[in-house]
Recover the amino acids of this structure.
């Protein structure tokens, strides 16, 4: 059963302002598929040459209509996005080469989701993407170029991409467990425009290192329809946070050495959680505290946002009543926690 709130969201919000024995077999199958299809992952964004237009209305989609026709019941387009950026400023072309070992789990996404368009963003293609699509938004381009560390830059980029084109963003250290087409039940596909998963639920327990909220949403995996207003709001928050960091540290923003908490609060999951929750409150005035979302055990629909309980995107963790071991049927993907931006 899916929990739903009666209030319906706006019909077409646009970004108009600037700016789980079976599970074991499944793992083996997916990794064999990974070995067979890894080379297919190197279709980089450079093949994209479409455009997105700001202003009133939606921009032109970059997805071929032939692919769209097979996904007509979904508001979330059949696109998978991943990002690999160098942790240090590249000094030569060699520094721009992406280590294939970082993509060991990525083929599970293409194998599990045939027909989906896969895009891997690297340093060069990401910068080209931002400068091309945000030519009329110099503050966004400037903010992207001057991000204090790679984690913040990757965060910002995923929000910009999903805001413009939609699809599924997922970190490269994640494993697909169920087809994306099955993430949203059929009777909700014409309503869901954003899918978020809980990464931490304090419940009656203690807090957790670096987790700033009683309930926190992950941003290692996000699914969205293009133009969802939460991404515009997130971009605006980030621009303000960068100004605040520069003022606090009394140096230009690209010279700031942010603490882990500052990263979490500016571009990371703490900021994402607060922005998403404010959007949820726009849809449901009875949501007065993030604790209202604690203890959920089934997906909950609020407006056009589908909130997944802990195992949806957050199985395998030592907290929040997260399932450890064999993936449960509720698990849609698994985060391996291999990546780290700390100390960079």
């Amino acid at each position: 059963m899916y929990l739903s709130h009666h209030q319906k969201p706006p019909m077409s919000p646009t970004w108009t302002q600037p700016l789980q024995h079976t599970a074991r077999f499944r793992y083996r199958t997916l990794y064999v598929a990974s070995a067979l299809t890894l080379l297919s992952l190197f279709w980089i964004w450079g093949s994209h040459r479409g455009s997105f237009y700001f202003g009133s209305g939606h921009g032109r989609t970059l997805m071929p209509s032939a692919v769209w026709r097979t996904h007509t019941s979904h508001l979330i387009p059949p696109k998978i996005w991943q990002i690999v950026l160098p942790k240090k400023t590249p000094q030569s072309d060699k520094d721009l080469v992406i280590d294939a070992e970082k993509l060991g789990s990525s083929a599970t996404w293409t194998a599990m989701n045939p027909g989906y368009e896969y895009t891997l963003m690297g340093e060069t293609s990401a910068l080209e993407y931002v400068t091309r699509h945000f030519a009329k938004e110099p503050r966004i381009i400037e903010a992207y170029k001057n991000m204090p560390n790679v984690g913040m830059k990757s965060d910002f980029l995923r929000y910009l991409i999903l805001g413009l084109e939609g699809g599924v963003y997922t970190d490269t250290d994640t494993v697909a467990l169920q087809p994306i087409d099955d993430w949203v039940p059929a009777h909700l596909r014409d309503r869901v425009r954003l899918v978020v998963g809980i990464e931490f639920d304090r419940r009656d327990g203690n807090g957790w290192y670096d987790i700033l909220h009683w309930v926190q949403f992950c941003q290692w995996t996000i699914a969205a329809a293009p133009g969802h207003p939460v991404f515009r709001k997130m971009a605006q928050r980030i621009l303000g946070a960068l100004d605040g960091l520069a003022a606090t540290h009394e140096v230009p923003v690209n010279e700031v050495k942010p603490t882990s908490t500052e990263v979490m609060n500016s571009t990371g999951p703490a900021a994402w959680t607060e922005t998403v929750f404010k959007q949820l409150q726009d849809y449901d005035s009875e949501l007065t505290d993030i604790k209202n979302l604690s203890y959920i055990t089934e997906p909950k629909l609020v407006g056009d946002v589908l909130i997944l309980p802990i195992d949806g995107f957050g199985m395998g963790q030592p907290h929040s009543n997260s399932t450890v071991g064999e993936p449960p049927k509720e698990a849609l993907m698994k985060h391996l926690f291999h990546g780290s931006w700390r100390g960079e």
Q: What stands out?
A: The chain has ten helices and eleven strands. Residues 229-249 form the longest helix (21 residues).
